[in-house]
# Entry
Amino acid sequence: MQEAASLLCFYLAFALLHGASPGRFPLKTWQPSQRRSGLMRLSALLAAAAGVFLYDLRHGLSDALLVAFPALSTMATVFVLLAPTCPRLLWALALACPPLVLILSILGASDG
Amino acid sequence: MKFSAHAFGHFWDLHAWAGVISGLVLYVMFLAGSLTLFRAEVGVWQEPLAHQRSTHESHQAQLERALAAAPATKGPIWFYPATTGAARLSYREAATGISRQSWFDENAGRLVHDREQLAQFVFSVHRLSHDRTGEWVEKLAGVLAIVLLLTLVTGVLIHLKDIVRQFHQFRPQKSLRVLWSDMHKVLGVMGLPFQVLYAYTGAFLVLAPIFLNAFTGPLFGGDQQRASQAFWGLLPPPPKEAGEPAPALSIDDLGARARRALPNLEPDAYRLFHRGFENGVVEVRGRIRGDNPKKDGIVLLSATDGRVLGLKPVKETAYAATSRWMFGLHEARFGGAVLHVLFFFLALATALTILTGNWIWIERRVATRNSIGNRMLARLTLGVGGGGVVALATLFLVSRVFPLEWGARGNAEELTFVVVFLACIGWAFVARVERAVWWQQLGLAGILLLPVPLLAARYSSAGLFGSGLRHATVVGVDVAILVAALSLCATAWGLRRASLRPDRSAAPGTPGGDPTSAPGSELEEAGT
# Structure
């Protein structure tokens, strides 16, 4: 559970980083200001740190740091390659990530 | 950072030539490597005796029952106690001198020699290592890893000026040529840390022993034993003479002593020398819990009085520690099952990066001169790309079709792999419509894989379609095969639909492509 929550964190991190640029933001009617783009980048950093933290709970910090790179690489590849064909699905999943991460983390913690 | 046109041209040529020369072999290595990440799981799946329920007997009781079924042996005996499946023995037959690796079938009370080599063969393909091809081909794998490193470095230098933009850019709505170019850059940039890791560790694992051996003469006077001691910190060798017959302690007792000598050791194998004699010694081997990447430990004990004669690692040598890290990173011995899945996808992504690189090369060359060499490379890329997948799928299929007790099944499986692989390359060369070959071969691979979990139920009831007690690993592999088969069929269907769209230019080198398309302008657009 915590591993899945961690992967979702990495997914969210890349989605935020990808969307932080005005040209790639999913809504065409509203574009983020420079300040909001900065906030999105900061949130991406926090999401990645949360991913490391959640993986650390199960496998230790060295494993969590080693896993962070392939996890981010995989999520980023999936996101960039699928974004042009099914953008709604990808952004919907990104929006669903925070509650999903919370639920999976609680379930993982209750499993021990 | 911007290079002069002269430097840029050299980097581009180096990147392209190194990539195209080594690409197709590296593609096969990465494709087989993606499956090799699950070697342990496939190893359990392929052998029904590994699905037997554990007897919960002591290690000594298991050993005695297995040895009672074994013929007379000579030399050391390896014993692997049952954890989830049957116990295993590895020994040399006294009468024939043949080395055997056998499972102990609890139900029949007999030894069954290793009969299925699927996981090992896929591993051999990944390493380019086989008894019949000799050591030099394996060494070539190390050289190819260096070439891959060179390709990666030059690739980064070429794209350094706009690497962040290419990180996010994928335009499938444009022509196929732009699509290949974007895909090559996205997969290449995103997968860069993974590719560098594998190229570096792969080169180290293959080539480092060769370089170290070069020091044996000048530094150790040619003494291989002393050199190995310095590099690896080896244990003292067991006594040459067996001595008089003498009673031995049980391996459970020796295992407990080993755990006291090396805390956190989890014994999973025993190596017995001179069993039943006064000079008998036992190596207790296992993983050391808590270390990352996983560290292996060995304790050498006297079999008669339980004295500790040596242990490893007391203090890990620099080379042993470096090798442990290199192996640990290369074989993903950390991070749990999630990391194996991530590495699996990244390995497939790397394989695709290599193929798209070849297609970009072909497009650039075809745009200026449509030579026979370029046309052959296009066909070869197609044949090896699709053929590798079909051959691996066929290997899984025949492993569940050939009779389990058939003595020649190992050779027959290997032969099937090679014949199917070559046949697919031949198919790509004779196909009239090149672009159709991709979806046809991927579809074929999916169809070949689809019945495998069902056929696996013939040999074991522990799988997805079995009627007996389920085995988590066996069910997991069955599910993975099913998902892979359906994904391949879906990809083939998608590619077929895409190939029928009239607004697309053809696949690289395809004569049936839109004759009015201007490749030069598309390449400019693609930024290659």
Notes: The mean pLDDT of chain A is 87.
